[in-house]
Amino acid sequence: MKTKKKPDVEYLDDYNSAHDKVEETLNVPSQYIPLISGVNDSIIRYLENHFQSDIYVGEDEIVFQASSDSSKQLVKVFDNLLSMAKQQGHIPFEEVRLLVDQVEQDNLLQSDVRVKNSIKIQRIGKKIEPKTENQVKYFDAMTKYDLTICYGPAGTGKTYLAVGFALQQLLAGTYKRIILTRPVVEAGEKLGFLPGDFIEKISPYLRPLYDSIFDIVGPKTYEYLIHSSIIEIIPLAYMRGRTLNDAIIILDEAQNATYSQLKMFLTRMGFYSKVIITGDVTQVDLEKRNDSGLMPIINLFHAIETIAIVEFSKKDIVRHPLVRQMLNVLEDYEQNKNR
Predict the structure, then answer these.
(1) Quick one: which of 122, 152, 120, 145 has its CA closest to 276?
(2) Statement to judge: residues 155 and 214 lie in one domain
């Protein structure tokens, strides 16, 4: 690991006073220094550039000079990086970017809270951690309630967390199967005739659900669960006439379902079943946006105490930080356009 040599104290005092920088020294156990620094000091370089700071890494300490605001944020970042290093034994670079973004948004979920509220999928050994306070609430709601509705912008983990929770419950033996469904609606463009049999025709619409399962359980378990019909992925229209017992049923992209479709779906719920509905009311792909039944259902169900409704905001976005910035700009444009 490369390290920067710390300048002498007198030089630092002159430099910091001239540039309104403050100095912080953090004691770090030597075994965690390489993890926090990253491969070829990639994490240190990223933090230096992002916070316009100077960071010096020693054998058992990290010293940095930065503006007062950046210094406070860097302390939070390094505290959580150390916690990640201790608990996980590795620090993925994308986690660093998310951590920095959350610190700047004042939306940081401490690493120990993430670990405490994580779910571990038996037989696979994979652990899924919530990354925001609302994701913690989402996990809690899915655990406690038979019907959970989660809505919010893209990139907040609505579908992925629901699928992860369902797989954890399935492989723990709590439920016998998982049913995943979504409306088959084209996203603003006509795709025309699709070749193949029924499954091949609808597969592009349902692919995000397949991808979530594959990412969580890996290829072998994925093949077994799909081909044995323990997990069934079907279009919403084909839910009519079924009663689903001992199952977790997930309706994804519910903003593209009409009120009557949602009513039909909700009445498929059988004994010992759990239903999770996800959607983004800002991304309705129906020809008439007012045909979406998601918000009417949410408004009606707020009065039912045994139903959980979880709303995500742009603060809960866990994709690239640009996603939030783009959504802010696009929302401003749409609001000005509709005035």
Answers:
(1) 145
(2) yes
For 39, 227, 255, 263, the CA distances from 236, given in Å and listed in that order, are 46, 20, 12, 12
Residues 59 and 123 in one domain: no
Q: Give the whole-angstrom CA distance, residue 53 versus residue 23.
A: 10
Number of domains in the chain: 2
Residue 81 belongs to domain spanning: 9-104
Burial of 207: CB neighbours in 10 Å, binned 0-12, 13-18, 19+: exposed
Task: Note whether 93 and 192 are same-domain residues.
Answer: no
Dist. CA 196–CA 276, nearest whole Å? 31
Examine the pLDDT at 283 and tell me if it is beyond 80.
Answer: yes
Dihedral pair phi/psi, residue 81, rounded to 5°:
-65, -40
pLDDT tens for each residue of 59-70:
999 999 999 999
Give a yes or no: residue 79 inside a domain: yes
Q: What is the pLDDT of residue 2?
A: 40
